């Protein structure tokens, strides 16, 4: 995972696997897609509506909060879903995942994360 700031009020997140760069996304502050707070960056994906085949209608929004803690990038991934089951019964689902990645600053304004770790150095993902 690579974080960079290609322009003022833009943040770019690149995710690569063993084969190299696999995807990237750019978030722009002027469109309200990201906000910098003291010590954190909050990224918001616009809500997405979906129509289930006979199940109903659903809407999902995702918010990521990125924190720099010592030599780690800590990510809070919050999802909020609203559904109309059978197009009649409303239902709400929320969940939050926390991840911690080793981070290495590779140049000014750019941070790279190489692997997700917990306190013992093993892979970690915690669900609230």
Summarize this structure briefly.
The protein has 128 residues and is an all-beta fold.
Task: Map the helices and strands.
Blueprint: E1 2-4, E2 10-17, E3 20-28, E4 34-37, E5 40-52, E6 56-69, E7 72-85, E8 89-107, E9 110-116, E10 126-127
Antiparallel strand pairs: 1-2, 1-9, 2-3, 4-5, 5-6, 6-7, 7-8, 8-9, 8-10
Overview of this protein structure:
The protein is 0% helix and 73% strand. It has 128 residues and is mainly β. It has one domain. Strands 1, 2, 3, 4, 5, 6, 7, 8, 9 and 10 form a ten-stranded antiparallel beta sheet that branches. A hairpin with a 5-residue loop joins strand 1 (2-4) and strand 2. Mean pLDDT is 76; it is low at 114-128.
Q: Which features would summarize this protein structure in a list?
A:
elongated; 0% helix; 128 residues; 73% strand; mainly beta; disordered C terminus; single chain
């Amino acid at each position: 995972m690579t974080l960079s700031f290609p322009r003022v009020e833009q943040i770019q997140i690149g995710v690569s696997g063993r084969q190299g760069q696999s995807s990237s996304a750019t978030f722009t502050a002027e469109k309200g897609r990201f906000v910098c707070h003291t010590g954190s960056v909050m990224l918001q994906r616009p809500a997405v509506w979906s129509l289930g085949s006979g199940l109903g209608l659903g809407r999902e929004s995702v918010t990521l909060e990125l924190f720099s803690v010592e030599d780690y990038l800590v990510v809070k991934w919050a999802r909020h879903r609203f559904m109309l089951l059978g197009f009649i019964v409303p239902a709400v689902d929320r969940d939050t995942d926390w991840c911690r990645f080793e981070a290495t600053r590779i140049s000014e304004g750019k941070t790279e994360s190489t692997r997700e770790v917990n306190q013992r150095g093993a892979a970690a993902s915690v669900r609230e």
